Amino acid sequence: MKLLEGKTVLVTGASTGIGRAAAIGAAQHGANVVINYAHSDAAAADCVAQIEATGQRGLAVKGDVADPQTAQDFVAKAVDAFGSVDVMVSNAGICPFHAFLDMPVEVVERTFRVNLHGAYFMVQAAANQMVKQGKGGSIVAVSSISALVGGEFQTHYTPTKAGVHSLMQSTAIALGRHGIRCNSVLPGTILTEINKDDLADIEKRKYMEQRTPLGRLGMPEDLAGPIVFLASDMAAYVTGAALLVDGGMFVNLQ
Ligand SMILES: NC(=O)C1=CN([C@@H]2O[C@H](COP(=O)(O)OP(=O)(O)OC[C@H]3O[C@@H](n4cnc5c(N)ncnc54)[C@H](OP(=O)(O)O)[C@@H]3O)[C@@H](O)[C@H]2O)C=CC1
Ligand SMILES: C[C@H](O)[C@@H]1OC(=O)[C@H](O)[C@@H]1O
């Protein structure tokens, strides 16, 4: 059963990792997919090729989500290409691990701008287009387990993920009257480019695995199903919700 037949799905940060898996998962469920990315041209082209291999249409639009104009351009190009915006998956993000006491100002500001401002303006641009279309829509933001728990080397990052989680709660209220649902997924530790260096520390990787009741770290594809579900009409009465996708890591105190 295809859950997104006839829909146009936009995914930010989809050249690699979770965004890429969500984009391909949406195409496998019958959507045409427009992806955003900032740097990785070849990876973005490969993602579009994978989307098209499903028989759906794909388009990559390059742009830095930290710039509010990128959101306007992304939505406009999606409408030009495929006629509407039915789903926005706000996923683009960075996590440059760094200690707190000597955290450079530029690292804090860049992380806030990409992860939180970027999500804010993407969600706002998509919502305005959905309101104009008058047939509702679905917004799924990729927050994190880190919205709920801290990280010694993530003091600049975890507040952005809590912010994204909170943004979905507030926009669920602001947009409910337009039939637009807003939810977040909260991934645990998923093996992607964002933590390749961090998890090259074998002891740390083992510790993270041992904290996970399902016994393994996540793969990007583990997020595709939950994101497609929240994007789809199967979740028609779900808004303002946050879904942990973490193999049980969050509940594992002892
Ligand atoms: N991996 C994990 O354990 C977890 C990840 N997350 C969240 O998942 C999301 C995706 O990360 P993940 O897949 O892990 O990591 P990746 O590094 O694999 O993917 C990040 C994606 O974001 C894009 N991106 C980065 N900066 C920008 C920017 N300024 N503008 C537009 N696109 C940008 C990258 O594109 P390009 O390379 O072209 O710049 C890439 O497509 C992030 O929001 C992250 O916080 C949440 C919880 C856990
Ligand atoms: C980048 C981290 O490994 C990853 O990102 C998060 O949001 C979680 O903290 C994960 O551990």
From TrEMBL:
Belongs to the short-chain dehydrogenases/reductases (SDR) family. InterPro entries: NAD(P)-bd_dom_sf, SDR_fam. Pathway: Carbohydrate degradation; L-rhamnose degradation. This is L-rhamnose 1-dehydrogenase (NAD(P)(+)). Its EC number is 1.1.1.378. It catalyses: L-rhamnofuranose + NADP(+) = L-rhamnono-1,4-lactone + NADPH + H(+); L-rhamnofuranose + NAD(+) = L-rhamnono-1,4-lactone + NADH + H(+). SUPFAM superfamilies: NAD(P)-binding Rossmann-fold domains. The keyword Transmembrane helix does not apply.
